[in-house]
Amino acid sequence: MTIKPLADRVVIKSVEAEETTKSGIILAGSAKEKPQVAEIVAVGPGGFVDGNEVKMYVNVGDKVIISQYAGNPVKIDGEELTIVRQSDILAIVE
Fold it and tell me: Does residue 38 contact residue 13 with C-beta atoms inside 8 Å?
């Protein structure tokens, strides 16, 4: 199944958080933070949102940093994805 976001929305897939700290301590599942780095899977066309024109600045494949609790989680074909607005993306990781 293919997912195509509308307007200024972006579909992202979280990048797995590290399971060990820099000092070598292995983290339990409950101690891990929600990942804030994600890879873009699909990008909406932009256009007019709430009367303002929105230009899309991100592309499929970009790695981005998102707001910690942003977006709506969805499960497509057993894969966990999140749909966020472009404004919830804080930075592109290069």
Answer: yes
Q: Provide the 8-state DSSP code for 15.
A: P
Contacts for 78 with CB less than 8 Å, ≥ 6 apart: none
Mean pLDDT taken over the chain: 87
Indicate whether 25 pLDDT > 80: no
Residues 6 and 75: their CA atoms lie apart, in Å, by 17
Give the strands of the sheet with 79-85, arranged side by side.
72-76, 79-85, 9-14, 37-43, 63-66, 89-93
Q: The whole model's pTM is what?
A: 0.80
